[in-house]
User: Which sequence fits this backbone?
């Protein structure tokens, strides 16, 4: 390559943070599972003792850091890499929560609940706020806003 040649367009572009985070998801789950959910006793702290899900991994690191959960004998203390792994998983947890909430809203509507009743359940002041929340969730999850 001559000194005047331009390298390929993306050669020196910073990495896309979302793509980099996505590549860390499985290593993050594995790290937390290996360090803090390796034994049956440790996994018993979780909703699904056989498999550590993203929300459980984040909750586990948070509980261990806050002292809500006690470390098992020989279990390492939560370190910076554990915290980074948990932070890596947060977008997945948020997406799961959004999908769960959207599904619950749609099932409530399917069972005849009014937007006013849904607003009350969500602690929102108006039916319009509940409808807008549904629309935002549908937009974030890529779902069609049915019955909006």
Assistant:
């Amino acid at each position: 390559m001559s000194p005047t040649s331009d390298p390929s367009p993306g050669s020196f572009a910073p990495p896309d943070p979302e793509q980099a985070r996505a590549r860390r998801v499985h290593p993050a789950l594995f790290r937390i599972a290996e360090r803090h959910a390796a034994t049956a006793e440790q996994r018993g702290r979780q909703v699904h003792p056989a498999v550590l899900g993203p929300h459980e991994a984040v909750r586990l690191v948070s509980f261990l850091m806050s002292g809500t959960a006690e470390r098992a004998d020989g279990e390492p203390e939560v370190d910076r890499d554990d915290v980074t792994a948990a932070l890596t998983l947060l977008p997945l947890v948020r997406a799961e929560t959004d999908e769960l909430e959207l599904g619950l809203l749609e099932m409530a509507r399917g069972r005849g609940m009014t937007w006013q009743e849904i607003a009350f359940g969500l602690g929102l002041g108006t039916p319009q706020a509940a409808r807008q929340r549904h629309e935002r969730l549908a937009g974030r999850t890529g779902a069609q806003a049915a019955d909006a």
Remarks:
- The first helix runs from residue 17 to 36.
- Residues 144-148 have pLDDT under 50 and may be disordered.
- The helical segments are 17-36, 40-43, 54-66, 80-110, 115-122, 127-141.
- The two ends are 58 Å apart (CA to CA).
